[in-house]
Amino acid sequence: MPTRSFIDFTSEDRILGILIKERVKWLGKSDEQRAKSPVYEELCKILPPQRTWVTPGKKSRSQLKNSRTRQLQNAATALRKTISRDRSGVCKRKEGNKDISRPGYLPELNNFTQDIKDSITSGNVSLKKPETTAIFKQDEEREDRILVTFRPISVYDDLKTKVLIKLASQYLTELLDPLFHEEILSYRIRRNYHGEHPKELYMTKADDAVPNILKFKQEHETAWVAECDIKKFYDIVNHRCVMESLERLLEKGHIDRKRAVGAIEILEAYLDGYNFKESVLEKSHEPGFWNPYLPGLGKKLKPGKKTIECQFGWVDEHELGDDLRQVGIPQGGVLSTLICNILMNDVDQAVVDPNDPDRFFNRFGDDILLMHATEEGCRRLFEAYKASLTAHKLIYHDEKTIGDNYKDGRLTRADYWNEKTKAPFLWGPGEGNAAEWIGFVGYEIRYDGEIRLRKSTLKKQFNKICFQFHKATHIDTIKSGVANCMKGIDKCAWSILKFEQLDFNPASRRQMHHLDRYRHNKRSKALLYLSTLPREKAKEQKEAKKGPASYASLLAGRKRE
Q1: From CA 326, how far away is CA 238, in angstroms rounded?
Q2: Distance of alpha carbon 484 from its chain centroid, rounded?
Q3: Of 366, 396, 426, 463, which residue has the fewest beta carbons closer than 10 angstroms?
Q4: Closest CA to 276 of 249, 322, 304, 237
C-alpha cells in the first residue's frame, strides 16, 4: 500500500512508462488504423520515430515464451533506451547538414509530462468523454428480421485523458487492493493468496477458482450450490453507490482522503463523463450510427429478405428507479475494473464470513458462486447476497430452480445451463433438485472432479475456427501465399492450453474431438478454395496441406508432461 500522496506518486518516470506502453501497442497495427487514431498522432509528436530506436542488448532482451509479449517488452526497452540516450545527448547524429543529436520531440515530451503534473497539482482535472464503438455479441432470428445485440466499448481518443486515467488506476489499485477480501479473484495485484505461493507474490486469475471448488467438495460430503448473475453489470452500476462504497473502504483502511485527493477527482470525473443512457443508448439511435457495421453483418449472417436490426441491450429503465445520468460505467476503460472491485467488495460483505467453515464463496468479475454444506446454509447465503445486490442498486436475473421442469429423471436438461441465476441445488447425482455438474469461469466441474469446458466457452472455440476460416477465404488480395492464410486455422488449437485446469478425461476428450472434426472440415474447405487461386505455388500447397496439431493431442500431451 503506497504511503505517499498521489502527487508524489505521479513521477516523470511513471508518466513516461505509461506513454511507452501506449506506443508499443501500435506495433503491428495497419497504417489505416494508425491514420484514424488521434492518440497515435499525439504519440508520434512526443516520442522518437521507430526507425531511430536502439536495439536492446542480449542481456536486456525479454526471454518470455509468448512471442507477442516478448516483442512488446523488447520494443518498450528499446524505446526507453532511445529516450535516455537522446536526453543525455551522448549520441552525436546528423541528418544532412542538420545536427539532430538533440531531437525535436524532447521539448514536446517535457511539455506534455509537465502538463500532466500541473493538472494534478492544481486540482484542475478534466477528462474528455469517450467515444462509443460496438462489438458483436449475439444474434437472434425473428420472423421478419434478425435482431443483433452488440456490446458497447468506450474508446478514449485523447492521450492526456488516457494517461490521467491510468495514473489514477495505478495509484488507487495499490492503495485499495489490500483492503479487498481474499476471495475476489479478478483484477488484483500480486499478493500472497492463501499462502500457496510463499516465496513469491501471485496474481490470481479465473483458473484459481477450480482448485478452490474441488478442495471444498473433497472436504465436505455434501455441497449445495447457488449461482447469481447480474444483468448488464457495467451498464447499470450506480455512481453514487460506487462513491459510498469507496468512502467505506477508505474508512476501513484508515486512509486520509486528502492523500488520494487527485486520484479520487479523476475517478469522479471518469464517472461524471459517462452514463449509459446518454453515452450509448441515445447515440445508438442517431441516424447512421449502425451503418459501418451493416456490410460485415450482411456477409456474416446472410439475412436474405430479412432486415438486420442492431441494438445495445439494456434493462428496463423502471427497474433502475434512479437518476439515469448516474448509471453505467465505460466498458474498456482501465478504471472500470477497479470500480467493479470497489463496489462488489462492498456487496460481498453480506456473505464473507470467516467463522463459517462450511461456507464457500468465489467471485471473478461479476460471476458469483456460492456453496454450503447444507441446503439451509446455502439458501441463507443466496438470499443475503440477493438482498445486498438490491441494496446497491444492482439487478440480478430471475432465479430458476432445477426441479421446475428442468429434469428428466436423473438427467438435467440442457436448457437449464442457459439460465443465469440458479437457486440452491445439490451438487451430485439424483432426481429432483440435484445436478452432477456446476459451471464457473469457463469450466464445468463434475461432482467427482471431472472437468470440461463450459458450453459458452466451447462455442467461442467453434466461433474462433469459423472466424479464421472466413478470414482465409475472404481475402481480396493474398500477398503472403496459402501457408500464411492457413496459419490462423492451424493455430486455433493452441488456445486450448490457456485453460490450465482442463485435463484429458472422457468428457473433455469428446469436446476436443468435436473441435478437431469441425476444424478439419473448415480447413479442407479453405484449402479447396485457396487452391483455385492463380497465385498458388506447388511448394506452398504442399506446406499448407501438412496437418496441424490437434486439440486432443495438445491436451493429452500436457497431461503426459
Answers
A1: 6
A2: 28
A3: 463
A4: 237
State pTM to two decimals. Answer: 0.89
CA–centroid distance for 561 within its chain? 29
- Sequence-ordered strand ranges (E) for 234-313: 307-312
Buried b / exposed e along 1-23 (16+ C-beta atoms within 10 A): eeeebbeebbeeebbbebbbebb
Helix (H) or strand (E) holding 361: strand 359-364
Q: Which residues fall within 8 angstroms of residue 82, CB to CB, at 6 or more apart?
A: 48, 52, 53, 54
- How far apart, in Å, are the Cα atoms of 298 and each of 39, 81, 132? 31, 48, 22
CA–CA gap between residue 45 and residue 459 (Å, rounded)? 44
CB atoms within 10 A of CB 296: 10
Taking CA atoms, 172 is separated from 15, 164, 175, in Å, by 16, 12, 5
C-beta of residue 133 within 8 angstroms of C-beta of residue 155: yes
- At residue 2, φ and ψ (nearest 5 deg) are -70, 135
In 3D space, the residue among 119, 116, 131 whose CA is nearest the CA of residue 37 turns out to be 131
Percent of the chain with pLDDT over 90: 52
For 200, phi then psi, to 5°, come to: -150, 150
Angle between helices 105-122 and 67-88 (to 10 degrees): 100
Q: What is the DSSP string of 155-169?
A: E---HHHHHHHHHHH
177 Cβ contact partners less than 8 Å away, ≥ 6 residues apart: 188, 189, 191, 341
- CA proximity to 411, closest of 436, 383, 382, 378: 436
Quote the crossing angle between the two packed helices 538-545 and 506-531, to the nearest 10°. 170
Q: Is 442 exposed, middle or buried (0-12, 13-18, 19+ CB in 10 A)?
A: buried
Nearest in space to 309 (alpha carbons), one of 286, 293, 326, 328: 293
Name the grid cell of 313. 441491450
Q: Using CA atoms, how far apart are residues 290 and 279, in angstroms rounded to an integer? A: 15
The single-letter code of the amino acid at 479 is K
d(CA 286, CA 282): 7
- The secondary structure of residue 8, as a DSSP letter, is H
Q: Tell me the β-bridge partners of 427.
A: 435
Query: In angstroms, how far is CA 236 from the centroid of its own chain?
Result: 18
CA atoms within 13 A on the CB side of 25: 13
Query: What's the confidence (pLDDT) of residue 154?
Result: 94
Whole-angstrom Cα distance, residue 363 to residue 355?
19
- 8 Å CB contact between 537 and 481: yes
In degrees rounded to 5, what are phi and psi of residue 403? -75, -15
Task: Give the CA angle between residues 363, 365, 367 to the nearest 5°.
Answer: 55
Strands 145-155 and 131-141: antiparallel
392-404: pLDDT as tens digits: 999 999 988 887 6
Q: What residue ranges in 39-107 does DSSP mark as E strands?
A: 94-95, 98-99
E strands within 451-492? 451-453
Q: Give the integer Cα–Cα distance in Å for 239 and 260.
A: 19
Cα–Cα dist 143/310, whole Å = 16
Which three cell numbers, joined as nine digits, stand for 265?
477527482
